[in-house]
Amino acid sequence: MQLTDVERHILAGGHGEAAAIALRIVSETGRLLGADRLIPVASAHVDGCLYLGDTGTRFAEKLVQGGAQVAVPTTLNVGALDLLNPANIRLNDHTRAMVRRHMQAYEAMGCRATWTCAPYQAGHRPKLGEDVAWGESNAVVFCNSVLGARTNRYGDLLDIACAIIGRAPLYGLHRPENREARIVVDVSQLSSRLRSSEAFWPVLGAWLGRTVGEEVAVIEGLQGFANEDRLKALGAAAASYGAVALFHIAGVTPEAPTVDAVLSKDGARATFQVTAEMMASTRDILSTAQSDAIDYVAVGSPHLSYEEAVTIAERLAGRTVRLPFYANTGRHVVQRLEREGRLKPLVDAGIRFIVDTCIVVTPIVPSSGILMTNSGKFACYVPGTTGCDVMFGSTAECVESAVAGRLVRDMDLWT
Amino acid sequence: MTGSIMFPGAASGPVLVLDRGLSFWGGVDPKTGEILDVRHPQCGKSVAGSILAIAEPIGSSSSSAVLLELIAAGTAPAAIVLGRADAILVVGCLAARELDYDCPPIIVDRLPDWATSGGLVMLDATGPEIKVKQSVAGSTVPVGEDVSKKVAR
Known about the structure:
The structure holds two protein chains of two kinds. Chain A has 16 helices and 14 strands. Chain A is of the alpha/beta class. By secondary structure, chain B is of the alpha/beta class. In chain B, strands 1-5-4-3-2-6-7-8 form an eight-stranded mixed beta sheet. Residues 145-153 of chain B have low confidence and may be disordered.
């Protein structure tokens, strides 16, 4: 690892203790992964602001005491409190106080209080080809794939370290040759109806993650079907069920005008023809519930966009929900809904907005029962983090089920 | 033996081989080390004190912070063997070291021969070479030696 004079000065404490810690962590990680130097990054998105225990808070406060300030524009992922509606969260007094200290430490370092796992829909959109340092697996895969900016999966603690020194190790997806696809996935044989349905995208993502692990794939056959929220759902599931940090979709994502444009010079290592059966069996893996007796509905992982919130309002069409319905989103969405007079009708219909955080990172939903969701990422993590079983369905099915108070699904879609 | 050292150290403990990838965040209790992911074949087992072999590290980028909490609580794996180099878990060790905790060694090796669940292994990854001894029928032998002769004697 070759450090510049400035970097060696930082390492020696010339920019304060926190910058030295940050540079040690970043350069050591880079050395372990075979990087030979650090590169400047244009921005950071930090996931380490989520409280997981007191040790993480001690680490953040050690950085603050050491004079840490982020060197580049930095957004924050979800915390473990709903700062706008604190009563939404069931935490004991000690934990609540630690969570608040943890979140305050990250704000004190100069990070923006965005508190969302969809920073790319809250105004943080790096440019094509720009090097950045992002954490949060769904944000990483969106940033690489949909925006064409360049980041690795920077884990908690490394993300803030990169932000403090404004640098990241040159390895992995910062290098153009590692962004080429080695796997081709052809979905063009699936019915147009399935590809047009929003429930298909997280299922395809879960299949992709389980199949390719961390490898880069290019998907053929989705031209004309994709939109930003669908790509968001695909990436989040692929990063939960696997370690996907980058995918390409021919004719859709910016680095892949065609399959050939992004395929490795060595050709494809594997090619997959995706069938309706493969999608149906993956859809079944997303659900763990053994009965249809759903108790709650939760949407918004990644956080709902404004458009997704409006879709829920349109689906409700003035009806109210009978089941508890948790809509997880960021303050950027809630504030816009409120400004446009769309928030109150949703709240009056029974929709419970969870803001700055979400149901899988802090105690919100009851610890047993069956939770229905449209999110592949929730389907992955709800059982382990809440104790609830999950039932996967589309947004429309989630809304209809919540209104009816019982499971409503259209299984014909998957044939 | 082959393999490379991501984070140096020495440890001993029972081997726990994970049959699927595991996200520490959402998949492991950050206090106790118990595997919580209900879809995981090793759900209900604990990573605490184990020589944990993970062919495919997957999932959340918060897994580094979960490892930090496990290290502080004394419930981390004794050592971690990754099937491929991955930046996320090792950062948990790098941050824990800044807080003066002893950290589990992390090595990269694609499921070595000795990685069989239940076996007792001593792993010396202080460098430059990785040395592994395994306990066979009550005696400890270096990996790679003819185990049958050692046991017979």
